[in-house]
Specification:
This protein is mainly beta and 627 residues long. The protein has two helices and 45 strands. The strands form nine sheets. Strands 33, 34, 35, 36, 37, 39, 40, 43 and 45 form a nine-stranded antiparallel beta sheet that branches. Strands 21, 23, 26, 28, 29 and 31 form a six-stranded mixed beta sheet that branches.
Length: 627
């Protein structure tokens, strides 16, 4: 069993081609039984449908679909052609705790199609194949209706649409075959029958005009086998002239849904298709409201999921295009053409976000700015994303010339519960692939003024620090971190320190290495090209002599103890514990102030520090207190 990528947008299955979807509700879940399109192997007709097996999928939210794997394959059907590649639209129903899977296949002898049955104790199988197909049924696209009185009926296509009663064993006809009368002229296939409020519905793909493509249509009756009263269209022809459509209707948790297929992932090949879902509504008189195809589909996205913004619910002044026309499985993007353009994506649940930030995949050729807003194009700003091609500096500023880049941005605020997202263009043209929201790991815990003192950890690393929000510096490369440059820079910043208005935070680090770039990210400040002031207050019960300050930092750093410089880590460094070691020092009885300045360029930044005694063992016999 493997899990597919969960999608609350169309198409819903992304890792293989699926068509002819029959959806059924079993045990509080929706089970999906589609056909499986594949590329024709050598020796098969290359411009025709090619299907060799069936998968079954399940979901509880119509968003996260689990692939339970292959349940029937052509080489294992005892009566079928092992290389027929004609396993077209199936169905599955439950009766008395057994699950009956119906499927068409070409028989080993003769022409045409027969309908087989496989039986299981679970909706996902394993299924046991019957040795012979159903006698008296020659055709495709089986559908089974279980009536309220316990009687069951089977319908199929392949020539005139027909139906018949089934025996209680679900494997044999129980009476004559009936032609479905009252249906419109024109090609029809793929019957799907159901009953609602005492009325029988027969739905089917139908070509309503010469040289046309399939619509989804329906008729109603007071009898399960007709005659039928044709009512009209459920879904119109595909806009891109994909020749087929095929479907099922299901009620789940009080809402009706239409499952159907398109060829979105194979726009030049309408024999490789993908399942989509839309909500469906009935009028008071029992007629069905016409369903419009959408990119958004159904289901609620968790904010932590990748939200493909081209699957929008509504938009203004945008264009949609495939990211890669040679590999359409990569999906599409949306281009916001000018300032004022927007796309709206309905139904995103933020209850999973506690301490979040935005991640967005964009491409732009000019300076621009995006906003992600709540509910409308003028709604409250959730996050701002500046994009420029003029500077590589800054937390959210990158070279965007013709390249897809993933940017991050802090949240101005976090919506509550389920809301709609609107991405707005605040400047020049920009393309957007996807957005998602992530929770930051708990790198730090804020320390209140009344918090008690703490000791270093078991390895002596100091984790309580006062950190001032970072100061932006123009550092394009760490190679400038020479001894003379650093001393000049640190002296300048030290002189400015009393006048700095940056906010200080007292924090306990969750890690021995204090991740300064995560600190900057958490509070929405610049993470690259940044200067960090760090200090901690050490309280000693007595003098601790002959200790060494052992430090590591990503970027360069300078360290002071009680106002005296004790260590400088210069050059383009990586954070390694005990990377630099001071001369022998004395931690005096009472209060000591340890201060550090850390600077980084285009890379990340973190640090670690502890004191080691004469034997190289960590010193832990002091406490860290609030100022």
């Amino acid at each position: 069993m493997t899990a597919t990528v969960g999608q609350a947008q169309n198409p819903v299955i992304r890792d293989l081609f699926t068509a002819d979807p029959t959806a059924r509700v079993f045990n509080g879940k929706v089970y999906l039984y589609p056909s499986h399109d594949i590329m024709p192997p050598e020796g098969q007709r290359q411009d025709w449908f090619c299907m060799e097996d069936y998968h079954v999928f399940s979901s509880v939210n119509l968003t996260d679909w689990t692939d339970h794997g292959v349940i029937v394959s052509q080489e294992k059907v005892p009566w079928g052609k092992p290389d027929g590649y004609s396993m077209w639209a199936p169905d599955c129903v439950e009766k008395d705790g057994k699950y009956y899977f119906y499927f068409p296949n070409g028989p080993k002898s003769g022409r045409g199609f027969a309908i087989g049955v496989a039986v299981a104790n679970s909706p996902e199988g394993p299924f046991t194949l019957e040795p012979e197909p159903i006698k008296g049924v020659m055709g495709i696209d089986p559908c089974v209706l279980l009536d309220d009185d316990g009687q069951q009926y089977i319908y199929w296509a392949g020539g005139p649409m027909r139906g018949a009663r089934l025996k209680g064993n679900m494997k044999e006809l129980d009476g004559p075959v009936t032609m479905m009368e009252g249906l419109p002229d024109g090609f029809k296939e793929g019957p799907f029958a159901f009953k609602r409020n005492g009325l029988y519905y027969l739905t089917f793909p139908w070509v309503r005009q010469e040289k046309g493509t399939e619509t989804l249509a329906y008729a109603t009756s007071n009898s399960p086998l007709g005659p039928w009263d044709f009512k009209g269209i459920i879904m119109a022809e595909h806009a891109n002239r994909c020749w087929t459509n095929h479907h099922s209707l299901v009620e789940y948790k009080g809402q009706w849904y239409l499952f159907y297929h398109t060829n979105f992932f194979s726009p030049k090949d309408d024999k490789r298709r993908s399942v989509c879902i839309e909500k469906l509504f009935f009028n008071a008189d029992g007629t069905i409201q016409e369903v419009k195809q959408t990119m958004r589909g159904v289901g609620i996205n968790q904010a932590t999921e990748r939200i493909e913004i081209d699957r929008y619910s509504s938009a203004n002044d945008v264009q949609t295009a495939y990211i890669d026309t040679t590999n359409t499985l990569r999906g599409a993007c949306v281009t916001l053409l000018q300032k004022g353009s927007w796309v709206k994506y309905d139904g995103v649940d933020f209850s999973c976000i506690t301490d979040g930030y935005l991640v967005i995949n964009v491409m732009a050729s000019e300076n621009t700015q995006l906003c992600v807003r709540e509910n409308s194009a003028k709604g409250k700003v959730i996050a701002k994303i500046p994009v420029t091609v003029k500077s590589e500096q800054g937390a959210f500023r990158r070279d965007m010339s013709g390249q897809w880049l993933t940017l991050t941005a802090p949240l101005d605020f976090t919506p509550k519960g389920i809301t709609d997202l609107v991405v707005t263009c605040e400047g020049e043209t920009v393309s957007v692939d996807w957005v998602r929201f992530k929770n930051r790991p708990k790198y730090f815990t804020e320390v209140g003024k009344s918090a008690s003192s703490v000791q270093p950890d078991n390895q002596g690393f100091i984790r309580r620090w006062r950190l001032m929000e970072p100061i932006a510096v123009d550092v394009r490369s760490n190679i400038i971190f020479t001894n003379s440059w650093l001393r000049e820079k640190f002296s300048e910043e030290l002189a400015r320190l009393p006048k700095q208005k940056g906010k200080w935070y007292t924090l306990d680090s969750e890690n021995y290495n204090v991740k300064l770039f995560r600190f900057a990210e958490k509070y929405g400040k610049q993470t690259y090209g940044s200067f960090f002031w760090c200090e901690t207050i050490i309280e000693c019960p007595e003098d601790i002599e002959n200790v060494r300050l052992a430090c590591g930092s990503n970027g360069a750093s300078m360290w002071w103890l009680n106002g005296e410089e004790v260590l400088l880590l210069e050059g383009d460094r990586r954070m390694v514990e005990d990377d630099g070691m001071s001369q022998r020092l004395t931690l005096k009885k009472g209060r000591n102030v340890l201060r550090a300045a850390v600077i980084n360029g285009p890379g990340l930044s973190d640090m670690c520090v502890r004191f080691l005694d004469e034997k190289g063992l960590p010193v832990t016999s002091f406490t860290l207190v609030n100022k």
